[in-house]
Amino acid sequence: MGQHWQIINIDKRENLGNWGNLDEFFTAPNHSGDLISLLADPSRWAGCRIMCIGGGTKKCPPGVLTSEELAEIEKFPTTRRYGKTLYTLAAGYYKEARPWPRRSSRGTVLRNLTKRVYVRGDVVMEELGLWTGDMSNVLLANICWSDDSSCAMAVDMTRGAWAGDRLDVVPLSVVENDEEEWEDVTEDQTAGLRKKFYYPTVTPRLTTHP
User: Fold this and answer.
1) Which residues of the chain register pLDDT less than 50?
2) What stretches of 62-153 show up as alpha helix (H) in DSSP?
3) pTM for this predicted structure
4) 83 in the Ramachandran plot: left (φ > 0), alpha (ψ -120 to 50) or beta?
5) For 32-80, how does the pLDDT look when each residue is reduced to its tens digit (9 = 90+)?
6) Which of 120, 123, 124 is nearest to 108 (CA)?
7) Is 42 helix (H, G, I), strand (E, B) or coil?
8) Domain assignments of the chain as residue spans, ordered by start
9) Alpha helix (H) ranges present in the chain?
10) Count of H helices and E strands in the chain?
11) How far apart are CA 15 and CA 91, in angstroms?
């Protein structure tokens, strides 16, 4: 059956609710699209530490939590099911993010501010869009974290390389005009997602979305 998962914003102390098994995240485009919209809003989740955390999490990736946050977790009473973990903190004390307007992801990039890399949304849609592959699935494939490898998926998704990193979504021009260097990892990310979900190589899309 697998563990339960929730997408959390560590800085804002918010979540997108409990979504159940991990495979539900990848087949719920409305919810994942909401996440991209939040990351595109500077007043909401842009620039914050984001993670899709599983109930089997014991420890977070190194360096994600501050000493104050670790101390707060240690003050929790031990629960039989989850213990003293970030998952317990988020489930018990984080608020569900309030409604927000949906934004188009066209012409935008997903940036990892911690690692200074980015993914081009239009290229992802062209490469993977016919199989519901989009920027949100690239994001989800990188931010999942748990010490329990059960995830109701064909491959292990529980040790995401971006889990807890600072992320945002901005127009491509922001990266192009930035004097500091950014690495374009779009091709690596689309290839990785195709390998995980067995997407075939596709031809350019024949239809467009608003």
Assistant:
1) 199-210
2) 67-74, 86-93, 121-128, 135-143
3) 0.84
4) left
5) 667 888 999 999 999 999 999 988 788 999 999 999 999 999 887 766 5
6) 120
7) coil
8) 5-197
9) 22-26, 29-39, 67-74, 86-93, 121-128, 135-143, 172-176, 186-197
10) 8, 9
11) 8
| Residue written as token pair 């934004």 | 103
> How long a stretch of residues is the chain?
210
Sequence-distant (6+) residues with CB within 8 A of 83 are 58
Angle at 16 (CA atoms; ends 199, 74), nearest 5 degrees: 110
Smallest CA-to-CA distance from 112 within 63, 156, 163 is with: 163
62 token code pair: 């190194």
Question: Encoding tokens for residue 79?
Answer: 């629960």
Q: Give the residue among 84, 78, 77, 121 at the shortest CA–CA distance from 103.
A: 121
At residue 17, φ and ψ (nearest 5 deg) are 85, 170
**Locus of tokens 């501010």:** 113
User: Comparing C-alpha atoms, which of 134, 109, 108, 129 is closest to residue 119?
Assistant: 109
